[in-house]
Amino acid sequence: DMLLAYHDRSDGGLFATLCEMSFAGHCGVDVDLPGDDVFAVLFNEELGAVIQVHSSDRMQIDKILEQHGLGACTHSLGHVSISDDIVFRANGEVILQDSRINFHRAWSDTSMRMQALRDNPDCAQQEYDSLLDGNDPGMHVRMTFDPAEDVVAPLISTGVRPRMAILREQGVNSQLEMAAAFDRAGFDAIDVTMSDILSGRETLGAFHGLVACGGFSYGDVLGAGGGWAKSILYNARAREQFEQYFNRGDTFGLGVCNGCQMMASLKEIIPGASAWPRFVTNLSEQFEARSSLVEIVDSPSIFLQGMAGTIMPIAVAHGEGRAEFTSRQQCSDSVVALRYVDNYGKATEAYPANPNGSPDGITGLSSEDGRFTVMMPHPERVFRSVSNSWRPAEWGEDGGWMRLFRNARLWLA
Fold first, then answer.
1. Options 257, 260, 295, 331, the catalytic residue
2. I need a labelling partner for 390 at 20 to 30 A (CA). Which of 13, 72, 246, 340 fits?
3. What pLDDT does residue 58 have?
4. In the structure, what pLDDT confidence band is assigned to residue 217 with cuts at 50, 70 and 90?
5. In terms of C-beta density within 10 A (0-12 exposed, 13-18 middle, 19 or more buried), how is residue 171 classed?
6. Whole-structure pTM over 0.85, yes or no?
7. Cα(7)–Cα(64) distance, rounded to whole angstroms?
8. Which residues pair with 313 in a beta bridge?
9. CA distance 26 to 408
10. For residue 339, which of 302, 383, 304 has the smallest C-alpha distance?
């Protein structure tokens, strides 16, 4: 538990290693290089690593390294700086110094130029310009509830486990995480394929909950979710099944990623969903897989009750996540449940904080009565704390998104 940071020395040598650590930590460093050959020290790419430790742990760490035969090849390099500069010294004299931002922009320049040629050049420029903000607070959370509170514990203890349809189509790949999340929330998660519905092997009448999962349905061809919806709308048996399910007052549904695109295309048969948008190709023109900050908006969604005002990270993985409204009026009429926000907590359309370019950051919507919710990000992939690429240190086993699944079970109670 003494290591604060670690980076191997490889391409670019010690110079690139220290700069990249500074970029990641959003802080300056002040380095005094050992030896007389500055270029050999800075740019050789032989095996090595840089570690950051507390000064109070230094003697103990030196002792551990010595015990493992690494004492002779260990060197003290410098310290994190209060200023935002990256400074390299040799024998106490400054040989190279500039702001972290300028170094970072130089480091990112080639990538930005390649991205501008390959993808949407406006998005490439937005990402590059975001480096100019030296005060960016970085990823954070703002919780309006306790993620450790198991609000359905009394219901689970009764042994009653409502049947939950984990619906998937060819190519969907998130059904196992989705089943695990609903299982943990107290449901009996049942694997249901579209071929089960189309053939009549399975009916939705036996279920109170349904979730359309995400992944790469139909090999992630363009408009895959729309094609999935058409297999329902233009099949008499399937359409009747879904229409009856949506119109029952004791049912609820969730659509995620491809499932979001699919359910949004079924809005004509979902009560209170007429203002839902289409979901089309990301403005960046690329598949986006990242951890993004979202704000939970006050809405009637049964999944998000008691969570409004929360800002926390969520997994994103989609190529067609941009909400497209036919008019500003349709956008105003939609019941928004989730928005992308920047690191200051403000709804944003700027890339990459908004990975798909949706207007007003919109990435999740609810039906008017709250029973049906669609969203592009993947809450099922981060319902456990350890599944998050970054999380607050105080989170226990359950991540913040576990509450979404428990809320569904609470609603059925």
1. 257
2. 13
3. 94
4. confident
5. middle
6. yes
7. 19
8. 293
9. 39
10. 304
Asked if residues 231 and 198 have their Cβ atoms less than 8 Å apart, the reply is: yes
Structure tokens at 111: 């990538």
What is the rounded distance in angstroms from the CA atom of residue 351 to the CA atom of residue 127?
6
Six-digit token pair at 32? 């005094």
What is d(CA 168, CA 234) in angstroms, rounded to the nearest whole number? 18
Q: Indicate the SS3 state at residue 23.
A: helix
pLDDT bin (cut points 50, 70, 90) of residue 92 is confident
Task: For residues 304 and 311, give the distance between their C-alpha atoms in angstroms, rounded to a whole number.
Answer: 12
Helix (H) or strand (E) holding 362: strand 362-366
CB atoms within 10 A of CB 161: 16
- What pLDDT is recorded for position 8? 96
Helices marked H in 81-174: 100-118, 121-129, 153-156
Q: Is 75 one of the catalytic residues?
A: no
Q: Nearest Cα to 320, choosing from 360, 294, 342, 288?
A: 288
State how far the Cα of 163 lies from the Cα of 190, in Å rounded to an integer: 7
Burial class (CB in 10 A: 0-12, 13-18, 19+), 145: middle
- Catalytic residue, chosen from 7, 104, 208, 378, is 378
Q: How far apart are CA 402 and CA 180, in angstroms?
A: 11
Rounded Cα–Cα distance for residues 57 and 204 (Å): 61
26 included as an active-site residue: no
Can 257 be counted among the known catalytic residues? yes
Q: Which one, of 126, 101, 88, 97, lies nearest residue 26 by Cα?
A: 101
The pLDDT, as a whole number, for residue 215 is: 84
Which amino acid, one-letter code, is at 19?
C
Tracing tokens 């493992």 back to the chain, one arrives at: 68
Whether residue 338 contacts residue 300, with contact meaning beta carbons closer than 8 Å, is answered with no
Q: Is beta strand 372-375 parallel, antiparallel or unpaired with respect to 362-366?
A: antiparallel
Name residue, tokens 């500039």: 98
User: Do 245 and 210 contact (CB within 8 A), yes or no?
Assistant: yes
Burial class of 231 by CB neighbour count within 10 A (0 to 12, 13 to 18, 19+): middle
